[in-house]
Predict the 3D structure of the following.
Amino acid sequence: MANLLELRNLSKSHGAFNLRDVDLAVPAGTITGLIGANGAGKSTLLKLVLGLLPLDGGEIRLFGEDARLGGARLRQRIGFVQESPTLFPLLRVDELGEVVAPFYPRWDRATYRRICDAFELPRKTAFARLSQGSRMKAALALALSHEAELLLLDEPTSGLDPLMRRDLLDLLLEVIQDEGRAVLFSTHITSDLERVADHVAILKAGRLVLAGAKDDLLESWALVRGGEELLEGPLKDRCRGGERTELGLTLLCEGAGSLASLLPDGALQERPSLEDLVYFHDRGKESLCAR
Amino acid sequence: MLLELLRRDLRLHWGSLVVPILILGMGLGAVVMADEGTRLTGLILETSFLIPMLPVIIHQRESAKGTLGDLLVLPVSRAAVVRLRYAEVLFFTGGLLLLAHAAVWVELSVAARHPIPMSVMSRDQFLGVGVLLIFWFAYPMPLFLGWGMKGLVVGYGSLITLVVTLAMTETDLHRFIDASMARPVAMALVLAGLFTLSYLLSLKFFSRRDF
């Protein structure tokens, strides 16, 4: 599978925030989830890809080309949806399509109408009068009507009700049925990614702490629960974060397949969720882990 | 691309342009009613102060509403946005001067005065429009595109300070202006050069901005 997007050693200082040494690939035919707490750097990363923020260092390759050289031409092949689409509040849904269409050689008016109808969007209503969910749908309709090969979605499900969220996720699965397309989808709602993502990348404070195929990650990490004796054995070397509560210790350990022999009596090993990976990775590392 | 961007701006921002265009329209009335010798002086001054405001109004409105980011997410380069702003000032200036000419030609036709001149503006008046556009548009624009409203305030602030300082000192500004106007080709080339320099600086500053 060719990579539609590759980030190499990406870095950016933006006010007090620093994005450092991010390496990430988004292969065609996949949905990649970018997970992180608010302020972790998800939006900054997407803005760098879109050229809204100039790079401090590193390289972005879009469709195999240097994004800095390809610029606007490469953006013809990208569809972008942001968390709170601003677009043009006074324009009606059908007018939005007319304003955007001239900039995309592959714009398909019929597709735009079809998607708007499928989303049950009132085409004669001003964008400002749409609900949050409908605004998101309108932005998605714009992103999907020019045969975008790479969809970049910044927190598309926040603010949507559960039914609409499910519809959106189904739509993304439909998009990647065409194996030449890919989706990079930032969110802090990990349950969305559990359902649809093939790959995940976890950002914390501007650093990419984990990245890879979702199933591989979930298979290779484990949560170990037990008492203080967890820290006395070789398990400590495998620990990458954890938490001490009144009930005992919870450690996030790597190398799940070979942990069983290292567990003290009474310790429990569990498969983590994506949320566990985000929550526990690097948490309390200095006091609990060997490195 | 430039035409599409211009059409987009007119479509999205016509509401913000109504008041300045009305003021310019009232200027056209003054043109028709004024004496022949001075009929365009007021309009030229009005043009030079108001026209540079139109691209600034559009750009600032886009910035404030967050739609500038939406525009740059489209397959539109930053260079195209800068080109658009410079094209807009020429488009609005050219449009207004054409309208002024049309108004005067109509007035002369109605009054049955002959012959009707090809241009109701003198060469010096054309150069005057160019000089004022350089001062009021090309000088502050790189600062505005690079640093937003703060840049614009610094641009206009420093310009006004310069003009007031020159007016208060013993500088023989009039003689300098007369000498410059006596060489229209050189003057036009200098103005075009300054306009280009301003455009290049705008490109440089705007390409570094974060959105």
